[in-house]
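Subject: design request, 530 residues
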């Protein structure tokens, strides 16, 4: 089988390269690999059988034979003149290389000459390339990680010698040769590989004698991820009970897989997509206090367990402020409420009365916001302004309100100076919390979620009163001696407002006198020094 194939190949070469040399001889170049059977043609025109053919190599006769009776060919004899005058070499060796001349005597006293150049070459064969370190995709493409040091090795075998080349075709360079050498292998190295080095790498081996070339190539992809973590953000909708949480992680190749999920809860939010920006639209029925939402970025360039994440823990709004405010008729008063815990941020409004009428800015009401502090300034106070105000905070989880009760006094009750101090003491010197959650869905889904017990309803009132002006508070709260270092002594009161009172602001918050009554009937008073 092998012989037949080789003969066929050599005939092909003959057809391709036969030419007539300057001295009128047909000239043929032949290549054969060591061990092959080579057939050197002589007279090939028509079916005339030469009577005698002589073959000379490099000017010396090597064999003669001929015509109708081909020379006997002992098994050990490698050379043979065939019936048609061609020379058959069995088991070519490197020494068979040379210039062969045939001289055929044809019937009718004519002769025919032909020259054959025999080259003994092999290969390139076993050409292979290796690129390390790289992982192999199912389609055979190799993947390297940006920043790694990559070694390329191209190898093959050729006789007598070969020329090896590493070539690269990428987005910005086509078919450029990187390195070349004579030898059995060719090493190439890229340190700190960058995405621009992504492309097709070809290892080419060319036999220096036969010019036969073999080409192996492979695609190399360079994967990368950004150093930063994904970014978790929220987009609040017009309707405050709806929210979109988005997670973005740009700058990774190929596109990462992002996943939004809920910590420590089976069956919760769990959305996965191959994208660099993943948004989940959620509403109040799916959200609850202290729920942690995490976005995880997965990527082939990140090792297992090294996924990058961002997260946030949702918190219901909790407006804090002074529940009792007193103002003098015909003056202005500013109600203050601080909301700094809500995640995502709450939408805050001021409302008035048990009907909770929304307060809109006007010459009477001035609304302002300084950081987490929300202020409502009421100008030209009259007795009609007395009553309950709500600092209403709403985020996608819950609605929480701070109730503020405004008492209006006529100026005749106190001297102007004392009232001024009194009001400033109440407004500036106090930090009182009284907030309640009006709406939250936590009873619906969060209790079953394994978060542990939710916090109790925040019905407690923490009243922190700085006893800045002893004169004013002498009648209303127990008096404490000032400390020698000049710091203020502070009274802390903790008492619970019964929840029935809590629903109805008018019974919960009244004048300072009533507050004092409450203190006496409830828990003992703690003393704290700041
Ligand atoms: C070819 O062979 C014939 C007879 O065998 C001989 O006379 C002749 O000189 C040879 N020619 C060459 C070029 O060798
Ligand atoms: C063949 O040719 C040679 C010279 O070219 C000549 O001497 C000889 O007589 C010829 N023989 C025949 C049979 O024609
Ligand atoms: C092999 O697969 C990768 C990823 O699936 C793709 O980017 C690449 O183009 C593929 N290569 C070939 C040669 O198909
Ligand atoms: C790459 O090679 C350089 C120099 O040989 C070395 O300093 C660096 O640490 C190597 N980087 C990696 C990722 O192996
Ligand atoms: C390249 O590959 C060849 C053949 O596999 C091997 O002999 C040679 O050591 C390799 N060279 C390097 C630098 O790895
Ligand atoms: C690449 O180069 C080789 C030889 O160097 C050439 O045969 C081939 O056509 C080239 N391919 C492209 C796409 O330029
Ligand atoms: C080697 O193969 C590559 C891709 O298959 C091709 O672009 C290139 O032209 C080939 N080169 C040679 C010399 O055959
Ligand atoms: C929230 O996402 C939905 C689709 O996912 C979109 O239709 C809607 O406009 C987004 N809302 C906001 C406030 O971005
Ligand atoms: C999230 O959903 C995927 C299928 O979409 C599932 O394989 C995975 O276990 C789920 N994870 C959690 C924490 O529920
Ligand atoms: C809230 O989202 C859930 C799930 O997407 C949906 O079934 C429900 O109708 C939504 N509720 C409102 C008020 O949009
Ligand atoms: C203050 O209110 C009274 C009645 O409530 C009104 O008559 C008076 O014009 C107001 N003064 C200012 C400055 O608005």
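Subject: RE: design request

Done. Sequence follows.
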């Amino acid at each position: 089988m092998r012989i037949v194939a080789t003969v066929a190949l050599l005939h092909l070469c003959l057809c391709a390269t036969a030419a007539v040399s300057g001295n009128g001889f047909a000239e043929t170049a032949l290549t054969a690999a060591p061990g092959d059977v080579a057939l050197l043609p002589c007279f090939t025109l028509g079916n005339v059988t030469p009577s005698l053919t002589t073959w000379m190599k490099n000017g010396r006769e090597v064999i003669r034979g001929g015509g109708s009776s081909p020379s006997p060919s002992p098994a050990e004899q490698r050379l043979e003149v065939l019936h048609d005058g061609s020379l058959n070499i069995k088991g070519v060796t490197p020494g068979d290389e040379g210039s062969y001349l045939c001289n055929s005597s044809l019937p009718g006293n004519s002769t025919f000459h032909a020259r054959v150049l025999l080259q003994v070459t092999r290969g390139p064969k076993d050409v292979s390339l290796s690129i390390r370190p790289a992982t192999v995709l199912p389609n055979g493409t190799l993947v390297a990680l940006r920043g790694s040091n990559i070694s390329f090795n191209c190898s093959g075998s050729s006789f007598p010698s070969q020329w090896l080349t590493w070539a690269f075709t990428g987005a910005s360079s086509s078919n450029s040769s990187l390195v070349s050498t004579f030898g059995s292998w060719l090493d190439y190295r890229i340190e700190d590989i960058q995405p621009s080095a992504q492309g097709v790498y070809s290892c080419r081996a060319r036999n220096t004698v036969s010019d036969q070339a073999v080409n192996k190539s492979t695609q190399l992809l360079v994967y990368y991820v950004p150093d930063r973590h994904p970014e978790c953000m929220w987009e609040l909708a017009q309707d405050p009970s709806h929210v979109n949480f988005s997670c973005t992680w740009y700058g990774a190749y190929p596109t990462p897989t992002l996943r939004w999920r809920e910590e420590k809860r089976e069956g919760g939010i769990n959305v996965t997509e191959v994208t660099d920006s993943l948004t989940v639209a959620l509403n109040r029925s799916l959200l609850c206090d202290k729920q942690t939402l995490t976005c995880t970025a997965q990527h082939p360039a990140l090792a297992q367990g090294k996924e990058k994440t961002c997260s946030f823990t949702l918190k219901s709004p909790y407006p804090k402020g002074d529940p009792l405010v007193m103002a003098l008729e015909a003056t202005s008063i500013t109600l203050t409420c601080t909301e700094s815990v809500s995640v995502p941020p709450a939408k805050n409004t001021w409302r008035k009365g048990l009907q909770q009428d929304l307060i809109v800015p006007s010459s009477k009401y001035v609304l302002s916001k300084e950081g987490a502090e929300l202020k409502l300034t009421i100008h030209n106070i009259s007795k009609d302004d007395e009553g309950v105000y709500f600092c209403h905070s709403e985020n996608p989880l819950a609605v929480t309100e701070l109730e503020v009760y405004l008492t209006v006094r006529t100026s005749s009750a106190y001297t102007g100076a004392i009232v001024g101090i009194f009001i400033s003491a109440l407004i500036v010197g106090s930090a009182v919390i009284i907030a309640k959650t009006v709406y939250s869905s936590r009873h619906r889904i969060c209790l079953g979620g394994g978060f542990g017990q939710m916090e109790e309803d925040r019905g407690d009132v923490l009243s922190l009163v700085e006893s800045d002006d002893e004169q004013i508070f002498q009648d209303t709260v127990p008096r404490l001696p000032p400390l020698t270092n000049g710091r203020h002594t502070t009274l802390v009161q903790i008492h619970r407002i019964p929840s029935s009172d809590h629903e109805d602001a008018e019974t919960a918050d009244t004048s300072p006198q009533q507050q004092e009554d409450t203190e006496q009937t409830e828990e003992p008073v703690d003393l704290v020094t700041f």
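The CA atoms of residues 174 and 226 lie 28 Å apart.
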